[in-house]
C-alpha cells in the first residue's frame, strides 16, 4: 500500500533499486545530490543534473519535462553517501512560470521496478520558490528510508546548493540552466487538461490544499475499520478507535491516473476549481463557477464537487474541505518544525566556536538566526492564512446550501423541514476544527446507515475554554447531546423506519429526555429499574438473533409476524447503574452484532464508573465511536494524526427547532401507523 507522506514524514524503503517519478503542471528540471551524514555536498561531481545526468547508482533526465523518471540503485552509491536529495527547479531561460506558486503542486513518488508505489508526496505550500528539495533518501542504521522534505528556495538552484554547503553553488546553477536551455526544444510540455478517467470502484479523490491539483494516490481513509485500509463509498466514515478516533468519512481507494489539469500559467492566481474530485461513475457536470474578478481566484460555489446528486456533491465538497485543512495545517506545522530545527542548528554552530561565545559577533549571529527563523515562520503563516481564508470563503457558501441532514441546528433549512421519504447518504454529528485555523468549522459527517454505535462520554472533563464541569453537569450535557443525535437520526429516516428505545434505570434523565418523551417519538416510555433494563435488552437481543438466523438461512421473509423490521436505536443512560453481568454481556452483544442487522447503540456513560467490571468492557468501548458533550480535541485524522477539536451539535439556547422537528416526526409516524 502506498504511504502518502506529508512534509517531514519518513517511510522505509523495501529495496535498493527504485524509480522516482515526478509529475508537475509545467516543465521542470529534475536533479539529485549525494551528501554525507550532514547533507553536505563535497563538490560538483556529486550532483546529477541534465548536464551530467549519471552518477554511481543514480541517473536523471537530460532535459526539462513535466514528467520525469529517475533511476536509483542505492547499493551502487558510494559508502560515504548517506543522503540522496531529489531536486526540482523551474527553468530560468524559458517562457514558463518563474515560481512554483503559479503552477499545480508537484507530485513525486518512489516506486519499485515493478511500478508499485512505495511512497508519494505532493509538495504543497510553495509560493515564490523556484527550486525545491522534494525528497530525501537517507541511511539509518544500515537501512534506507525516504523522507518528504518540500524545502523551497526563492533564490533557485544557487540558493539550494549553497544551503547544502556547495562552494561552487552559483557556477553549477548557471551551468545547469545553460544545459537545460540548449535542450528546451526537446523538452516535454505539460499535459493538457483532461477529464479524469473513471473506474467502477472509484469515488471522491482527495484534493490538495487550496493551491493545486491532485496526483494519483490512495486515500488513507478507512470507513469504520482499521486506519489505513482503502475504504469504499458505502461505509460510514469514522474508523475504529485505536487510541485517538479518526473523525471523518473516507473516499474510495484508488484515484484516476489521467493527466492533471494545469493551473493558470505565469504568475497569475491559482484557479479555485477542483477538477479532480471524482465519483464512482461519470456524474452530471457540476454547476459552473461565476466569473472571477481580474487577479483573483474564481469564487467558490456550493456543490462544485462531482456526484450524481447535489447531496453527493456537497458531501464530497465537505470531505474535500476537511482534507484541505488537514494538509495545509500539516504543511504549516512542518515548516515551523523545520524553522525551529534550522535555528537550533545555526545556534549550535555559533556556540561551537569559542570565539563567538563572547562579544558582538556571537550576538549578531544569534540575532540573524532568530531573524531567519521568524521569517520562515511568518512565510508559513501567510500561506496558512491564505489557504484558511479561501476555505472560509468556501464554507460561507457551502454551509447555507447544506440539506437538513448535513446542517447545524441553527441553519434555516430546519425551519422548512419535512419528513423525508428516503435515507440520506450521511448525517452531521458535530463540527471539527484545528487550533491554527480556529475561524473555520468543518462539518463532521458520518455515512448512513450507522456501522458502529456512539459513546457520549460523560466523564468529568475540562473543556477547551478552561471551564471544568462536575460529574452531574457532564451527565446532563451528555444526555442532552444524545437526545440531539437521536432527534437527527429520527429526522432523516422516513416514517416508521427508525425506532428509538431508552434505558434510564434510575430515572435521572427525565428532564433531558423530555423532548423525546413529550413528542411521542419513542417506542415506549424510558425503561427504569433492573427489570426494565432486562426487558429491553432481551427484546433487542432476540431481534438480532432472529434477523441473523433469517439472513444466514437465506430466508429474510421468514421473520415472525409483527417483528419490527425498522432500524432500532437504544439510548443507554447512567450506565452501569441497573446492569448485572448478564445485562452487560447482552449490551456487548448488541454493540458487536447489532449494527449489521439494524440495531444501533448510543451510550451515555463515564468509563471510570464502570471500572468494576474490569477488562470485560474494554471491547465495548473500542467498538463505539467516542464523542463528548463539550468541545475536546480527542479525534485524529488518518494522514498525520492532527488532534482535531470536536464540537457537539447542540441546539441553540432558547430555540424551539428541536421540538418543532420532533412534532412533525410524531405526526408523520401517527399517519404512517394508520
Number of helices: 10
The residue ranges in which pLDDT falls below 50 over 5 or more consecutive positions are: 185-245, 247-282
Largest β sheet strand count, sense and barrel closure: 12 strands, mixed
Shape: elongated
Averaged pLDDT: 80
- In terms of structural class, how would the helical and strand content be classed? alpha+beta
**In angstroms, what separates the terminal alpha carbons?**
54 Å
State the total count of DSSP E strands: 23
Helix content: 25-40%
Rg, rounded, reads 29 Å
Strand content: 15-25%
Give a topology summary.
Elements: E1 3-5, E2 10-12, E3 17-35, E4 47-48, E5 54-55, E6 58-59, E7 65-73, E8 83-89, E9 107-112, E10 117-122, E11 131-140, E12 143-153, H1 156-163, H2 169-182, H3 310-352, H4 360-398, E13 426-433, E14 442-447, E15 453-457, E16 461-462, E17 468-469, H5 471-492, E18 498-503, H6 510-519, H7 529-552, E19 567-575, H8 581-593, E20 599-605, H9 618-623, E21 624-627, E22 632-636, E23 643-647, H10 657-673
Parallel strand pairs: 1-10, 15-20, 15-21, 18-19, 19-20
Antiparallel strand pairs: 2-12, 3-4, 3-7, 3-8, 3-9, 5-6, 6-7, 8-11, 9-10, 11-12, 13-14, 13-23, 16-17, 22-23
Amino acid at each position: 500500500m502506498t504511504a502518502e507522506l506529508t512534509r517531514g514524514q519518513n517511510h522505509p524503503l523495501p529495496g535498493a533499486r527504485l524509480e522516482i517519478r515526478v509529475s508537475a503542471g509545467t516543465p521542470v528540471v529534475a536533479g539529485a545530490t549525494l551528501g554525507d551524514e550532514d547533507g553536505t555536498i563535497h563538490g560538483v561531481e556529486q550532483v546529477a543534473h541534465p548536464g551530467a545526468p549519471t552518477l554511481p547508482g543514480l541517473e536523471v533526465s537530460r532535459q526539462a519535462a513535466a514528467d520525469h523518471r529517475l533511476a536509483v540503485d542505492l547499493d551502487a552509491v558510494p559508502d560515504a553517501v548517506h543522503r540522496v536529495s531529489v531536486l526540482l527547479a523551474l527553468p530560468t531561460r524559458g517562457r514558463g512560470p518563474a515560481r512554483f506558486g503559479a503552477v499545480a503542486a508537484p507530485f513525486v513518488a518512489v516506486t519499485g521496478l515493478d511500478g508499485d508505489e512505495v511512497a508519494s508526496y505532493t509538495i504543497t505550500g510553495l509560493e515564490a520558490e523556484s527550486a525545491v528539495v522534494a525528497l530525501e533518501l537517507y541511511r539509518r542504521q544500515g537501512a534506507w528510508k525516504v523522507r518528504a522534505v518540500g524545502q523551497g528556495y526563492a533564490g533557485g538552484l544557487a540558493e539550494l546548493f549553497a544551503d547544502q554547503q556547495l562552494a561552487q553553488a552559483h557556477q553549477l546553477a548557471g551551468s545547469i540552466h545553460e544545459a537545460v536551455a540548449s535542450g528546451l526544444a526537446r523538452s516535454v510540455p505539460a499535459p493538457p487538461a483532461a477529464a479524469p478517467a473513471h473506474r467502477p470502484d472509484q469515488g471522491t479523490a482527495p484534493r490538495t490544499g487550496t493551491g493545486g491539483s491532485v496526483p494519483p494516490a490512495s486515500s488513507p481513509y478507512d470507513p469504520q475499520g482499521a486506519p489505513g485500509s482503502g475504504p469504499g463509498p458505502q461505509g460510514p466514515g469514522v474508523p475504529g478507535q485505536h487510541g485517538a478516533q479518526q473523525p471523518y468519512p473516507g473516499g474510495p481507494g484508488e484515484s484516476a491516473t489521467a493527466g492533471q489539469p494545469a493551473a493558470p500559467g505565469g504568475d497569475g492566481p491559482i484557479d479555485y476549481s477542483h477538477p479532480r474530485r471524482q465519483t464512482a461513475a461519470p456524474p452530471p457536470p457540476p454547476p459552473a463557477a461565476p466569473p472571477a474578478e481580474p487577479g483573483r481566484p474564481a469564487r467558490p460555489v456550493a456543490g462544485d464537487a462531482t456526484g450524481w446528486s447535489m447531496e453527493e456533491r456537497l458531501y464530497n465538497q465537505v470531505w474535500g474541505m476537511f482534507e484541505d485543512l488537514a494538509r495545509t495545517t500539516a504543511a504549516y506545522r512542518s515548516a515551523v518544525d523545520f524553522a525551529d530545527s534550522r535555528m537550533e542548528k545555526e545556534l549550535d554552530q555559533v556556540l561551537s566556536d569559542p570565539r563567538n561565545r563572547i562579544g558582538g559577533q556571537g550576538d549578531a549571529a544569534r540575532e540573524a538566526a532568530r531573524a531567519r527563523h521568524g521569517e520562515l515562520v511568518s512565510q508559513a503563516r501567510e500561506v496558512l492564512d491564505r489557504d484558511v481564508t479561501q476555505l472560509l470563503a468556501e464554507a460561507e457558501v457551502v454551509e447555507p446550501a447544506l440539506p437538513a441532514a448535513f446542517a447545524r441546528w441553527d441553519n434555516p433549512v430546519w425551519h422548512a423541514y419535512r419528513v423525508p421519504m428516503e435515507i440520506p447518504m450521511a448525517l452531521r454529528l458535530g463540527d471539527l476544527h484545528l487550533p491554527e485555523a480556529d475561524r473555520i468549522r468543518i462539518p463532521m459527517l458520518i455515512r448512513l446507515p450507522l456501522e458502529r454505535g456512539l459513546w457520549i462520554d460523560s466523564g468529568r472533563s475540562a473543556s477547551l475554554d478552561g471551564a471544568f464541569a462536575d460529574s452531574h453537569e457532564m451527565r446532563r450535557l451528555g444526555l442532552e447531546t444524545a437526545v440531539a443525535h437521536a432527534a437527527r437520526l429520527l429526522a432523516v429516516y422516513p416514517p416508521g423506519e427508525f425506532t428509538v428505545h431508552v434505558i434510564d434505570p434510575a430515572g435521572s434523565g427525565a428532564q433531558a429526555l423530555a423532548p423525546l418523551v413529550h413528542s411521542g417519538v419513542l417506542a415506549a416510555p424510558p425503561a427504569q429499574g433492573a427489570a426494565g433494563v432486562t426487558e429491553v435488552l432481551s427484546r433487542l437481543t432476540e431481534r438480532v438473533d432472529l434477523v441473523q438466523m433469517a439472513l444466514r438461512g437465506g430466508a429474510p421473509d421468514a421473520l415472525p409476524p409483527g417483528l419490527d423490521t425498522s432500524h432500532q436505536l437504544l439510548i443507554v443512560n447512567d450506565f452501569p447503574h441497573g446492569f448485572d453481568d448478564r445485562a452487560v454481556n447482552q449490551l456487548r452483544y448488541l454493540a458487536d452484532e447489532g449494527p449489521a442487522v439494524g440495531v444501533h447503540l448510543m451510550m451515555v456513560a463515564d468509563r471510570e464508573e464502570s471500572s468494576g467490571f474490569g477488562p470485560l468492557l474494554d471491547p465495548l468501548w473500542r467498538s463505539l465511536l467516542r464523542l463528548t458533550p463539550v468541545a475536546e480535541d480527542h479525534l485524529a485524522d488518518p494522514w498525520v494524526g492532527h488532534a482535531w477539536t470536536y464540537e457537539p451539535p447542540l441546539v441553540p439556547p432558547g430555540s424551539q427547532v428541536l421540538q418543532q422537528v420532533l412534532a412533525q416526526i410524531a405526526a408523520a409516524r401517527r399517519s404512517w401507523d394508520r
